[in-house]
Amino acid sequence: MSSIDLALMGIKNLLRRKARTILTVLGVVIGTASIVVMVSIGLGMDIEFQKQLEEFGSLTMVNVSANYYGDTGQRNSSDDNKVLLDDEAIAKIEALDNVEYAVGFKRFDTKLYSGKYESYTSIKAVDFDKLSKMGIELSSGVMPTKEGKNEVLVGFYVNTSFYNPKSRDPWMNPPVLDVYTDKIEMIPNSNYYETKRPRGYTLKPTGVTTETDWAYASDVFMDYDTFVKLKKEFEIKNKQPNDGKNPNVSKPSKKVKDNKYDELKVNVAEIDEVKVVQDAIVKMGFQAFSMTEALEQNKKTSGMIQAVLGGIGGVSLFVAAIGITNTMVMSIYERTKEIGVMKVIGAQIRDIKRLFLFEAAMIGLIGGIMGIGLSYGTSQLINKVIANMSTGAEYGGLTLSSYIPIWLALSGMGFSTLVGLVAGYYPAVRATKLSALEAIRTE
User: Fold this and answer.
1) How far apart are CA 182 and CA 184, in angstroms?
2) Cβ pair 281, 61 in contact under 8 A
3) Which of 62, 219, 297, 379 is deepest in the core (most CB within 10 A)?
4) What is the CA 279 to chain-centroid distance, rounded?
């Protein structure tokens, strides 16, 4: 018999007993949908976690800091053994394969004033030419330039961090400043000035970061050379004693080696190369950390969750497989005479076997297709419910979601078809072993 004849005969046999076929297919639908939806929840958790990590920094970014403790675990105070975070270190790191750029930051604790309001923040002194490469998104304004006087880039949270120190409850109803129009004055460090407010200098914000970028939400970016210049002017203008006690004034001690930057941010071309670059930086003598470490750990946890959830869904498909086997065995009893006639008129054993395997595979395939459709509907329902539950949360929210990529849908259909074939193998072999004469005599 040709394959087309077998296929037509198999479809005709399935349609002959529609109710039983539909019920068997329904079991496959539920089993396939259960597996796909369970796995999709695990995939959705991966995506949501990755989005959260990206809010706190790029996944291709490596954060580098000085290693003060070395390999011995003891704090290293020797200048001769100190590996410095300076321009030379940046040049060496940028020479590594797959490194696009490295940016150095010097962090200064500062106090901001705007009229009667005050705020604490951190100034990040950085080379503005390198800052523009980082792709920081702005909610308004433009990136600052070296040419602009006292130009800065501010995080979106800075304008809401001010408070009135003379108020009974300074943090109740905090003011929301307009960083472009309200005068904002800065001093390098507030700890030393307890009685008298020093004369600072006015900042000129040119842009504000987006509210999705929490990595720099409370920071103020200033050009490195500009800050060094302003800090010297600040010392002269306020005539601070050069006694070594003021953190804003250089100590009168001999020159020692020190880090030009507090941290470096190194951008890697491909996320798969982040670990390689990170290990190379550690070998140079620095400490290095990247978001990919947290992402890899989460993937391991998510993989375990997906396996457990997929196993739960697999129980449903296993039950459906038993249903397919039962249906095909019952079909043998009902079609015993038909099988005998096929053998008498010359049908080959393998044709009978192929016929029953085709019918079982069709049950699995049809159930798989319908199960994938049910999975997509269930996935959308889950995401819609979670979205409604998360409405009103300004930031964050529930991280549970469902995501069904095309490979998961195709895998679901293929797996359900395979289950049908496996479940139909025993009935198909049994059908081939029937005696032709005894089958013909059966009423």
Assistant:
1) 6
2) no
3) 62
4) 22
Cα 131–133–139 angle (5° rounding)?
75
Contact 428, 48 (CB under 8 A): no
239 shares a domain with 216:
yes
| Residue labelled with tokens 């958790």 | 45
CB–CB of 205/154 below 8 Å? yes
- Scored b (16 or more CB within 10 A) or e, 167-203 reads eeeeeeebbebebeeeebbbbbbbeebeeeebebeeb
Q: Are 360 and 424 in contact (CB under 8 A)?
A: yes
Are 44 and 178 within one domain? Answer: no
Same domain for 47 and 67, yes or no, is no
- Whether residue 133 sits in one domain with residue 212: yes
Helices and strands in the chain: count of H runs, count of E runs: 11, 11
Picking from 191, 406, 431, the residue whose alpha carbon sits closest to that of residue 333 is: 431
- Cα separation, 396 vs 337, in Å, equals 66
Q: Is residue 292 part of a domain?
A: no
Written as tens digits, the pLDDT of the chain (443 aa) is 677 877 887 788 788 888 888 888 998 999 899 889 888 888 887 777 777 666 555 678 888 988 765 554 444 444 555 678 888 999 999 999 989 889 999 888 888 888 888 888 888 899 888 887 887 888 899 988 888 788 999 988 888 888 888 887 777 777 888 889 999 888 876 555 555 667 778 889 999 988 877 778 888 999 988 888 888 877 777 665 555 555 545 554 455 567 889 889 898 888 888 888 989 999 998 988 887 777 777 777 777 877 887 787 788 888 888 888 888 888 877 777 777 777 777 778 888 888 888 888 999 999 999 999 999 999 989 888 877 775 544 444 445 678 899 999 999 999 999 999 999 888 888 877 776 666 666 55
Q: Are residues 146 and 173 in the same domain?
A: yes
Dihedral (CA of 228, 233, 236, 241) sign:
negative
Say if 287 falls within a structural domain: no
Is residue 52 domain-shared with residue 70, that is, in the same domain? no
For residue 19, CA distances in Å to 23, 24, 26, 316, 393 come to 6, 9, 11, 20, 49
The pTM (predicted TM-score) of the whole model is 0.59
User: Do 169 and 26 belong together in one domain?
Assistant: no
